[in-house]
Amino acid sequence: MKRIKLGILQTNHDKSADVGDTFPDDAHRFRDLYDQQDQRYEYRVYMTIGGEVPADLIEQDAYMITGSPLSVLDQHVFTDDLMDFIRRCDAAKKPLFGACFGHQAIALALGGTVEKSSAGYNVGIEETVFEKSKPWMTPSHSTLPLYVFHEDYVSKLPDGCELLGSSKGCENASFAKGNHIFTTQAHPEFTHEFMSCVLKFTESSIPPAQAKSAWASLQQKQRGDVLGVWSTNFFQQAII
Asked: What is the CATH number assigned to the segment(s) 4-238?
C-alpha cells in the first residue's frame, strides 16, 4: 500500500507543565490517530507556530492544519503565510484537512466569517449531526460524538463551501469545498486523558454549571476514530 505523504501544519506549541510537558503535541496526537489505521503515512511536521509553512505544495501529497489555543482572530507571526498557503491549496485543489483552529483558519482564508462566542468556551463531548454526506464519509454515520474545545466559531461559510455537519454549540461544525477541502471544529485526535487534563487546566475560567456539564459529557464514548478514518478516505480520493 502506497504511503500517503502528509504535511502537518502545527499551529500550537504548548509549553505548560501541566499539559504541554505531560502529553504529546498536536502533530503527534494526529500521528497516533492515523497510525491506528491500515493506511500508512509518511509525516512531515511544519512548525507553523514559528512561521514555517510549505514553500511548494508538491512537497507532500496532502496537508492538514491542527488545532491551537490561539485565536484565529488575532494576528500571529504566521497568520499571513498560513492564509496564503490555504488559498494556494484551494486554487490548486490540493487536499487540505483542518481541525478546530485549522477549520476556522480555512474558513477565514476563503472569505468566511469567524467570531468569538458570547457563550464562552464550548468544551467536552458534543454530538455533530451530519445532514449531508461526501464519498469519503464511510463508514456512514449520521451523528458523531466528538471532543470539542473552542471559543471562536465559524459563523458564515465561504462561498462555494458546503455545510456537512452542525452541533449544538457550533452551527458550522464541519464543511467541505469540492473534494479537496474537509474540516471539523472537533478534535478527533484527543484522548480521554488529554481532554480531562485540558478541562481541569481551564476549569477556573468556565462557569461552574458549564464545567459540570462538560465533565458529565466525558462519560460518553467519543468517535474521533471514525472522523480519523473519514479524513484518511478524503486524502486517498483526493490524491488519486
From this structure: 3.40.50.880
